[in-house]
Fold:
Amino acid sequence: MKPSFTRPFQAAESDVPHARDTSTFLKARLAFAEFARTSDGKLHLLVYGKVITRHVDPIEKKPVVHYMPGSKIFSIATTGCNWLCHYCQNFDISQRRKVEGSDHSPEDIAGMAVSHGCQGLAYTYNQPTIFVEFARDVGLEAHRRGLVNIFVSNGYGTPEAVSVMGGFLDCITIDFKGNGETEFLRKYVGIPDAGAIFQTIQETRDKTKIQSK
Ligand code: SF4
Structure:
């Protein structure tokens, strides 16, 4: 069953009266419609359990270099992203306008990580907060099996998302793109500014025990 998805989407809800390229924000709203949909007054996560890719990676590739060095990490992603980066190296996943992927339960994913001899899971290749409910369910199952959970994130979350992350996440690396420069973010990423990223970093530091990189 797909869970309700109540986290607000900041790019879609932002009031950007001085946006230099408003069409970019419109595209962001359309992109969002591909992985979550409103029904009965709630947002529903369409990519729950839809795993588009999975790989075994060294933890250093995430890149996480001061947390469990030498570990093997089972990496997963869904389709979709809340950003529209022109330079995205995973654009075929992040910008895919379809819900696609193999169906897997949280137990399947945690079991695969164990069977590959991994010490943890990474939620990566696209922005993991867009599928945070699925990541949470996988992550709790991973904890039951003694594995750790890592987010590779753009940091564009909300306090609600950070609160959910605090319940299962052990480590996060936030890629701060373009030094947070507003013109860069509007032109190449499709968000109004870096305010939400700073807020996520601060909330993660102050309100959770997640290791931040
Ligand atoms: S946030 Fe990351 S995954 Fe999403 S479009 Fe940008 S580079 Fe790609």
About this structure: Residues 23-212 form a domain with the TIM Barrel fold (CATH 3.20.20.70). The chain has one domain: 23-212.
